[in-house]
Amino acid sequence: MIAHSIFFYTFSIIAIISAIMVTASKNTVHSVFFLILDFISISCLFIMIGAEFLGMIMLIVYVGAVAVLFLFVVMMLNVAQQKNQWFLSSQSSKHIPIGLIISVIIFFELIIVVGGWKYKPDLMTSSNLIINESISNTHSIGNILYTEYIHVFQLSGMILLVAMIGAIILTFRERAGLKRQSYFKQISRERSDSINLVEVENNKGVNIDD
Amino acid sequence: MMNNLNFVYPEIFISISIMFLLILGVFKKNSSNLIYNLSIITLIGTLVLTFNYPINTDNILFNESYKIDYLSTFMKILVFIGGIFTLIVSFKYLKIFKILQIEYSILILTSILGMMVMISSNDLIVFYIGLELQSLSLYVLASFNRDQIKSSEAGLKYFVLSALSSGLLLYGCSLIYGFSGTTNFDLISDSFDKVEYGLTFGLVFILVGLAFKISAVPFHMWAPDVYEGSPTSVTLFFAIVPKLAALTVFIRFLYVPFINMIEQWQMIIIFLSIASMVFGAIAAIGQTNLKRLVAYSSIGHMGYALAGLSTGTNQGIQSSIIYISIYLVMNLGLFSCLFMLKRNDKYYENIEDLSGLSKNHPLLSLSFLIVLFSLAGIPPLAGFFAKFYIFKIVIEQSMYFLAIVGLLATVISAFYYLRIIKIIYFDKEKEKYDLDYNIGLKISLVLSTLLVAFYFIAPSKLLEIISNIVII
Questions:
Q1: Best residue in A152, A160, A171 to probe B by mutation, most B CBs within 10 Å?
Q2: Inter-chain contacts counted by CB atoms under 8 A, chains A and B
Q3: A167: nearest CA in chain B?
Q4: Looking at chain B, which terminus has fewer C-beta neighbours within 10 angstroms, N or C?
C-alpha cells in the first residue's frame, strides 16, 4: 500500500510541476517537452487505477500524435527564437499579482473542499463504484460506450466532422493555375493524339510549330 | 433503444441532412446557392418534425440523459426560427462579401444540432458534448471572412476565451461528479440533502462557464470584439440563437439538480444580473459602431433575463423565457434594418451612417424607430411587456434592490436607443441607400416589426403557451 502511495504522489507531483512548466518555461520547444512529460505521468496515473486501456490510449493519441504535431508546428513556425515573456515582460507583470491572488483563493477553496471530503467519508463511498473484475478494461468500456452512451458517441463523431470542416475552411485556399494530375486523361490518351509521324525529305529538315 | 429513437427524429433528420448536404457540396460544382436553400428547407423540416410529438408529455430518453419536454420543444422551435431567419436575411450579404460557401449554412446547421442537444440535455456529459458541438461551429463561423483581419481576430479571440471557459466548466463538472457520484441532473439532486462545499464549488465553476456563453458581466469581454469582427450575418446568429440554448441550460441546471441550494446560487445570479444590466447600459453610450452597440445591448438584455431566473420560481422562469423570445424578435428586426443599409455593394454599420435616414427612407426609419423603442422598453411595444413581466415577478418576490437597479439601467439604456432615433430623424441627411432588398429580408423586417408593434393586442397568447413550462 505504501509503495502505491509513493508511486501515486511521485507521478502526481511530476504531472503538476510539468503542467506549470508548460506555461512558465521560456523556450517553446521545452514547453512541448514538458507537455509530453505531463501526458506520460497522467497516463501512468491512469494505469495505476487499473484503467490500462485509457492510459495506453493517452500515450498513443496525446504523446504519439498530438504532442509530436505540436513539436512540428513549433519547429516549423520557428517560434523557438521568441522567448516566452509571459512572466517577465513589464506589460504582463501588473496582471500577475491579481492572477496570483485569484489562484491562491481558488487553491485554498480547493483545500477546504478536499478537507471536507476527507473528514466526512460518508459522503461517497467507493462501494458506489461497481467494478467487474472478470471482464477486461476494453470490454467494459465497449459495454457502456455502445449502449448507454451511444448518442454521446455519435455526437462526438459530429464534433470531429465539424472540426475537420473548420480546419479545411480556415486553411484551404484554391490557387489559380494549379496543375493537377488527371488519371482519366492520362489513361485515355492515345498514341495518335500526341505522336505525329512526318516524312522528312533529305536536306530539308522539319518545321516544328507548337 | 428503438423506442428512444422515436423521439429524436428531429436530431436524426438534421444530422443526416448535414452529411447529405456535405456530400452534395463535394460532388456538385458551384452548388453553394442550392445548399443554402436546402439548409433552410432542412431547418423547416426539423421544425415540423419537432411539432410531431405529443407536446405535453415528458420523455426522458437514453438512460435518463436526454429530455424531451415542453421547455425543450419550445426552445428548440425558437432556435429553428432564429436559424431560419438568420439564413433568410443574410443571403445577399454573404454574396456580396463572397463568403457564400457551401460550408457556411452547414456550420449553422451543426451548431443548431449542438444547441438542440444542449436544450434537451439532462446529463452533464450530454450537455458538454452539445456545448462543444455548438461552440466549435461558432468559432469557425466567427472567422468565416478570413481574409479580413478583424474577422480572424474575432474567431481567435472567441476560440481562446471560450476554450478557457470550457475548461472551467469541465472542472466544475468533474467536481460535481466527484462529490455526487453521478452526472445525471435528476440523480445529482438526490445525492445530497445538505449543502456541500464541493458541490457549491462545482456549481460556481459551471455558472462561470455558462455566464461566459451568454456573455454576462463579468465574463463579457469577448462579446463586443467578436460581434464587431464577425460578418454581420454571423453577428445576428450570435446575438440571438446561442443565448437561447445557454439560457435553457441555465434553467435546467439551476432548477433541477441544484434547486435545494438556491441560497447558494441566487446571490451569484443576482450579481451577474445587476452587473450585466448596469454595464450593458453604461458601456453602450460611447459606442459609434452599431454592431458593438448591439453587443453591449445584448449584455444588458441578458441581465434582465437572468433577473427573472434569480427568483427561483416557475413564474420567474416563464418571464425569462418570454423575455428572450421577444428579444429574439426585436434583434431580428434590428439586424434586418442593418442589412438594408447598403450602398453600391458596401454595407454601413456606423451610427453616423444613419443620420437623416428618415428623409430618404421613411418606412425603414419607422421600423428602426419601432424596434429601438421596443428595445428601450417603451410602452406599448413588445419590449415593454417583456421587461414588465420580469419586474413584476421580481417585485413579487420582494427583491426590491434588483428591481430598482433594473429600472435605473432601463432608463440609462433608453438614452442610447433614443440617441440613434434622434440621429435618424433630426440629423442632416446623407446619400440614399440601395433599394434592391430581397424578399426574405423584407418578410423578416415586416414580420418582426409588426410582431413588436402589435404585441399588445394579444399578450395573453404567448403567456398561455409559456405557462405550460413548469420545471419545479
A1: A152
A2: 84
A3: B140
A4: N
**How many other β-carbons are positioned within 10 Å of the β-carbon of residue A146?**
10
Judge whether B408 lies within some domain.
yes
Rounded CA gap, B340 and A18, in Å? 54
- A→B interface, C-beta within 8 Å: 109-110, 112-113, 116-117, 123-124, 128-129, 148-152, 154-156, 158-159, 161-163, 165-166, 168-170
Q: Do A151 and B8 touch (CB under 8 A)?
A: yes
Number of residues that this document lists for chain A: 210
Query: Which grid coordinates are listed for B360?
Result: 430618404
Give the count of domains, chain A: 3
Query: What pLDDT score does A210 carry?
Result: 56
CB A85 within 8 A of CB A48: no
ipTM: 0.90
Residue B43 near residue B80, CB atoms below 8 Å: yes
Residue A177: inside a domain, yes or no?
Answer: no
Of A49, A120, A165, which to mutate for an interface test with B (greatest number of B Cβ within 10 Å)?
A165
Q: Which residues of B touch A116 (CB under 8 A)?
A: 196-198
> pLDDT tens, A14-58?
888 888 888 887 777 778 888 888 888 888 888 887 788 888 888
Cα–Cα distance measured from residue B177 to residue B203, given in angstroms and rounded to the nearest whole number? 11
As for how many domains chain B has, the answer is 1
CATH code, domain with A31: 1.20.120.1200
Q: Answer yes or no: do A14 and A81 share one domain.
A: yes
State how far the Cα of B317 lies from the Cα of B255, in Å rounded to an integer: 9
Amino acid A143: pLDDT: 86
Alpha-carbon distance of B251 to A173, in angstroms, equals 43
> What whole-number distance in Å separates Cα of residue B8 and Cα of residue B332?
28
Domain that holds residue A15: 1-85
B267 within some domain: yes
> Is this structure's pTM higher than 0.95?
no
A202 in any annotated domain: no
Tell me the pairing of strands B342-343 and B66-68.
Answer: unpaired
Beta bridge partners of B184: B123
Q: A106 and A32, same structural domain? A: no
Q: Is the distance from CB of B153 to CB of B224 less than 8 angstroms?
A: no
Q: Testing the interface with B: which of A103, A143, A169, A174 to mutate, by most B Cβ within 10 A? A: A169
Tell me the shortest Cα–Cα distance from B136 to chain A, in angstroms. Answer: 7
Q: Is residue A31 part of a domain?
A: yes
Residue B35's domain comprises 2-466
Is the per-residue pLDDT at B62 higher than 70?
yes
Whether A118 is in a domain gets the answer yes
B471 inside domain:
no
Alpha helices in B310-347 (DSSP H): 314-339
**Residues A55, A41 share a domain:** yes
Task: Quote the CA–CA distance of B97 and B233 in Å, as a whole number.
Answer: 11
B132 chain-A contacts, CB cut-off 8 A: 159
Same structural domain for residues A121 and A161? Answer: no
Per CB-CB distance under 8 Å, the chain A contacts of B197 are: 109, 112-113, 116
Q: Is residue B244 predicted with pLDDT exceeding 80?
A: yes
Q: How many Å lie between the alpha carbon of A19 and the closest alpha carbon of chain B?
A: 15
Highest mean predicted confidence (pLDDT) among A192-196, B49-53, B167-171: B167-171
Q: Which residues of A touch B130 (CB under 8 A)?
A: 155
Q: Is residue B250 in some structural domain?
A: yes
Q: Which helix (H) or strand (E) holds A155?
A: helix A150-171
Q: Least CA distance to A130: which residue of chain B?
A: B181
Contact B101 A161 (CB under 8 A): no
